[in-house]
TrEMBL record:
A GO molecular-function annotation: ATP diphosphatase activity
EC number(s) recorded for this UniProt protein: 3.6.1.8
Keywords of the record: Hydrolase
Residue intervals passing through the bilayer: none
A biological process term (GO) from this entry: dATP catabolic process
Name under which the protein is recorded: Nucleoside triphosphate pyrophosphohydrolase
Annotated CDD domains: NTP-PPase_MazG_Cterm, NTP-PPase_MazG_Nterm
Amino acid sequence: MTPSRDISRLLEIMAALRTPGSGCPWDLEQDFATIAPYTIEEAYEVADAIARGDLDDLRDELGDLLLQVVYHARMAEEQDAFAFGDVVEAVTRKMIRRHPHVFADSDGRLTPPGVTSAWERIKAEERAERAARRPAEETSHQSLLAGVKAGLPALSRAMELQRKASSVGFDWNDPREVLRKIREEADEIEAALDRGDAQELAEETGDLLFALVNLARHVGADPDLALRGTNAKFERRFGYIERTLAAQGRTLQDASLAEMDALWDEAKSKE
């Protein structure tokens, strides 16, 4: 078996890994549920490579993510549910349908807002079609929020829930109103601290995070990317503390909090 630029080689490799008797024992033990966490992890690795601007790493991480798609498709094929080709056909059909201004026989060209409107309309049609295929008891009440995937990361799902609610006017009109909500949630956390209720503190902290996502949405920031940027900034500044102390022949354990705070401010001033 040799490497190849052809997708068929990757399909052959996955089939070999999943072949009973001669395949990989670990791969043969896996199912959709056990592989799903790896799928999510690989998507994060792609986002991380993009954030770092490392295109070589991005190439490799996209390959890892593609492997996840192939893995799930192979397991589905083993159950006679669908195969990789069906996945490709489904997404190509979807993209053609969602871009009639590109692929349909039309002289008209949509503006960006028109493209967004058409995209949302077509997605709504697709959701209705999927709902029609479900048993009646599953579709007796179809919430506006039903289309927000439960498996999304919490920050992304909070953003999507808020966007859905905003589409029917359930939203603030001014980011400053969201700031007031954030201050209100912070006050509630302080009150919960006084009561020492761990469950209440967890709930109030969740409310504060939800409000912060709302603020990010109102100012046009992606909360996950914003937090990734802050994580990188924290690592950079903390690394400065470690390096400075090491140059002095000292460790983090040797330094007081006041000294570390001073070095943090020094690192901040150098950026």
